[in-house]
Amino acid sequence: MTPRLFGDAALASAWILALTASLAVLFVGEVLGQTPCLLCWYQRAFMFPLTIVLGLGLWWQDRRVGRYGVVLALAGGAVALWHLGLYAGLIPERIQPCTATGPSCTDADQLILGVPIPLLSFLAFALIAGLSAASLTDTKR
């Protein structure tokens, strides 16, 4: 596979993953009625633009957009990792950003098919970052 085709496939894969993740969280929130916690909102603030930015890069056939994908995915991944630390109990409860009146970062509602939402989010951001970086293999167009 040529570097150009590999880069195009990587960028398309990153976009499909970002789109799937964005639609999944909208389904969980809007259809299932699960209110996102504060950290989930922050992660959405990085995932939703990824869908738009990577999609426009595909539309305009500009793989250099992968560099923005890397930055947004790493930032979102950092928030997801923090959220995962709260969920796993590695971060002390006294510094949790969620309030007692809102949804919790650590309760059973944070599971989808038995897998914690923060872990799914972190994996999505990690894959998007890797695929976005891989799309930069041949940007001399």
TrEMBL record:
<dbReference type="InterPro" id="IPR012187">
    <property type="entry name" value="Disulphide_bond_form_BdbC"/>
</dbReference>
<keyword id="KW-1133">Transmembrane helix</keyword>
<dbReference type="GO" id="GO:0015035">
    <property type="term" value="F:protein-disulfide reductase activity"/>
</dbReference>
<keyword id="KW-0813">Transport</keyword>
<feature type="transmembrane region" description="Helical">
    <location>
        <begin position="43"/>
        <end position="61"/>
    </location>
</feature>
<keyword id="KW-0472">Membrane</keyword>
<keyword id="KW-0560">Oxidoreductase</keyword>
<protein>
    <submittedName>
        <fullName>Disulfide bond formation protein DsbB</fullName>
    </submittedName>
</protein>
<keyword id="KW-1015">Disulfide bond</keyword>
<dbReference type="InterPro" id="IPR003752">
    <property type="entry name" value="DiS_bond_form_DsbB/BdbC"/>
</dbReference>
<keyword id="KW-0676">Redox-active center</keyword>
<feature type="transmembrane region" description="Helical">
    <location>
        <begin position="68"/>
        <end position="91"/>
    </location>
</feature>
<dbReference type="GO" id="GO:0006457">
    <property type="term" value="P:protein folding"/>
</dbReference>
<keyword id="KW-0249">Electron transport</keyword>
<feature type="transmembrane region" description="Helical">
    <location>
        <begin position="111"/>
        <end position="136"/>
    </location>
</feature>
<dbReference type="Pfam" id="PF02600">
    <property type="entry name" value="DsbB"/>
</dbReference>
<keyword id="KW-0143">Chaperone</keyword>
<keyword id="KW-0812">Transmembrane</keyword>
<dbReference type="InterPro" id="IPR023380">
    <property type="entry name" value="DsbB-like_sf"/>
</dbReference>
<dbReference type="GO" id="GO:0016020">
    <property type="term" value="C:membrane"/>
</dbReference>
<comment type="similarity">
    <text>Belongs to the DsbB family. BdbC subfamily.</text>
</comment>
